[in-house]
Amino acid sequence: MSSTAQIGVTGLAVMGSNLARNFARNGYTTAVHNRTASKTRALVEEFGHEGTFIAAESAKEFADALERPRRLVIMVKAGEPTDAVIHEFAPLLEPGDVIIDGGNAHFEDTRRRERELREQGIHFVGVGISGGEEGALLGPSIMPGGSPESWEALGPMLEKISAKAADGTPCTSHMGPDGAGHFVKMVHNGIEYADMQLIAEAYHLLREVAGYSPARIAETFREWNRGRLDSYLIEITAVVLAHTDAATGRPYVDVVADAAEQKGTGRWTVQIALDLGVPVSGIAEAVFARAVSGHGELRAASRTLAGPVAAALAPEEADAFAARVEQALYASKIVSYTQGFHQIQAGSEEYGWGVDPGAVASLWRGGCIIRAAFLDRIRAAYDARPDLPSLLADERFAQEIGAAQDDWRAVLATAVGQGVPVPAFAASLAYYDALRAERLPAALTQGQRDYFGAHTYRRTDREGSFHTLWSGDRSEVRTD
Predict the structure, then answer these.
(1) From CA 314, how far away is CA 34, in angstroms rounded?
(2) What is the pLDDT, as a whole number, of residue 2?
(3) How far apart are CA 353 and CA 362, in angstroms?
(4) Of residues 185, 201, 326, 400, which has the active-site annotation?
(5) Residue 295, pLDDT score
(6) Which long-range contacts (CB under 8 A, 24 or more apart) does 84-89 make?
(7) 60 is catalytic
(8) How does the average pLDDT of the chain come out, rounded?
């Protein structure tokens, strides 16, 4: 088999097939391979008119079809299946070749694989891909990590197949070494969890407190999407809420079981944030909200618990309340992005990646699930101040969230009074209040720790570490 394919894709489920088609449709001769050869043949037979494909039935045929340096994309399930494919293909490759993992891998697995393959002279690139099946075909947001040499070999291709922002900029950029790309994709998914939960809480409030029907809420979301909340998730929320179930004629949201599933990247975000000591409370509550929704027996056993008697709002009050919910949603969304970017900066520092937060914001402007109009402003904020410690330290975002806080607080007070659970809204406001507080009760917490464990503490009036002798005369001793 001649070595004429510029890139190859192995693993031809929907995402892999669509990514291979995307390469071919953009003019790249694309080798395709699948463990089940019939799937390879079916892809070429159905979509061969879209570009130039080379079908390979064996691993050797696939490797032989690729021009040097070989660029081989793996699109299989994360974990052991990815390792199995790497072990199958690595012996067939040569120094300078590039293996690209486009799955939702844990970034620590990516770091391990990059180290192992580097010893063989093979470049390993962990690529976060966001946009779902449609994005893989028409242009996703792409977050690659790996060596600078691998970016030189792969970057132009990724730029061509990626989504393009409104200003024409490709929605891809080199994130940094080894696991940087998969780390950024992980945090993207954590923000996605928070964004979806906040939208769901806004829907819940409009339905339970304002008394709006799903169709009326759909129109509200369409209106919001024409303003500062303009985003992919707000757009599709309106579509979902307006949908009617064909079998029953009822609103779609009323026939779907209220148990949200998850694939694990949101949990990873929270777990790694704990390891890094980064507060991502809004993201964490979104993950826990999905967990609560899935515990059907626990919820059923708790339905006898007493709650407040809800008071119906008059129509004019309902509309005013909806306007306040928009403010609360916008402010809470800013917090979720703030927490996500803080985690990216902390991870970059911990692992020495040098991730550019402005570049991250730029490539999230198109193709990905959390694409939103205000990402242009997030990019501009980090471009103006690369050392920006927090989005809330940006003057414009700080002014907007400050202007929203009265309505934000009013919505939380109403939700608590009416017994409507809004954990992500509440956690986001608590985070905002914690950051703006001059003093937190952590001084008391540290005193307790010193009492029962002699963990010491620092003082506000002089340097050093101290411990109080809590028994006896309770004198203080310096410990450093």
Answers:
(1) 60
(2) 62
(3) 18
(4) 185
(5) 87
(6) 85/10, 85/11, 86/113, 86/117, 88/59, 89/10, 89/59, 89/62, 89/63
(7) no
(8) 95
Q: State in Å, rounded, how far the first CA of the chain is from the last one.
A: 70
| Predicted pLDDT of residue 214 | 97
Cα separation values, 463 from 455, 457, 478, Å: 16, 11, 10
Q: DSSP 3-state assignment of 328?
A: helix
Token representation of residue 105: 């891998």
Q: What are 50's two structure tokens?
A: 């879209």
- Contact indicator for 60, 35 with CB cutoff of 8 Å: no
- Whole-angstrom distance, CA of residue 298 vs CA of residue 456: 41
Q: Which of 344, 23, 284 has its CA nearest to residue 159? A: 23
Active-site annotation holder among 60, 159, 192, 235? 192
Beta strands 123-130; 98-101: pairing state: parallel
Q: What is the DSSP letter of 437?
A: -
- Find out whether 52 and 30 touch, Cβ atoms under 8 Å: yes
- As a whole number of angstroms, the distance between CA 153 and CA 148 comes to 9
Angstrom distances, CA of residue 470 to CA of 451, 453, 465, 466:
6, 11, 16, 12
Of 283, 262, 259, give the one whose Cα is nearest residue 271. 283
Among candidate residues 337, 283, 347, the one with its CA nearest the CA of residue 145: 347
Quote the pTM value.
Answer: 0.95
Q: How high is the pLDDT of residue 1?
A: 56
* Helix axes 180-208 and 214-224, enclosed angle (nearest 10): 130
- d(CA 151, CA 145) in angstroms, rounded, equals 8
- Per-residue DSSP letters for 246-287? TTT-SBGGGTS-S-----SHHHHHHHHHHHHT---HHHHHHH
User: In this structure, are residues 84 and 20 in contact, taking their beta carbons and an 8 Å threshold?
Assistant: no
C-alpha angle with apex 224: 191 to 133, nearest 5 degrees?
Answer: 50
Tell me which residue of 290, 378, 287 sits closest to 338, measured CA to CA: 378
SS3 212: coil
Q: Tell me if residue 185 is catalytic.
A: yes
105 contacts 73 by C-beta, under 8 angstroms:
no
Q: What is the DSSP letter of 387?
A: T
Dihedral angle sign, alpha carbons of residues 126, 130, 132, 138 = negative
For residues 103 and 264, give the distance between their C-alpha atoms in angstroms, rounded to a whole number: 13
Using one digit for the tens of pLDDT, what is the confidence trace for 150-184?
A: 999 999 999 999 999 999 999 999 999 999 999 99
**Which residue stretches of the chain have pLDDT < 70?**
1-2
DSSP codes joined into one string, 283-319:
HHHHHHHHHHHH-HHHHHHTTTS----PPPPPHHHHH
Nearest to 335 by CA among 400, 276, 419, 287: 400
